[in-house]
Amino acid sequence: MSIMSGMLLIGWNAITERGKMAEQLLSISKVSQRLSVSRRQFYRLRPRLIARGLQEVTIGHQRKFREASLDEMIRKAAEMGTAL
Questions:
Q1: Quick one: pLDDT at residue 5?
Q2: In whole angstroms, what is the distance from residue 63 CA to residue 39 CA?
Q3: Burial class for 31, CB neighbours closer than 10 Å (0-12, 13-18, 19+)
Q4: Domain carrying residue 41
Q5: How many structural domains is the chain composed of?
Q6: Residues 64, 56: Cα–Cα separation, whole Å
Q7: Does pTM surpass 0.85?
Q8: How many whole angstroms separate alpha carbon 18 and alpha carbon 16?
């Protein structure tokens, strides 16, 4: 558990001082599941996904991804009719 600029990190969820959920961070496995690709395919796609707006956070040696950025990236691709 650590406090960073008014936010408390518990597990991989950030909670504001007021107790409201502020941010959800997803593991590589969770992002892979959301995109319906294997972990190996995710690693191949990762540079392209980051270029399209997927935001990565490194915590220690682990990489986590902002759920909001994943949702936004998927929404934009769906609106434009483009592939990720």
A1: 45
A2: 13
A3: buried
A4: 25-84
A5: 1
A6: 6
A7: no
A8: 5
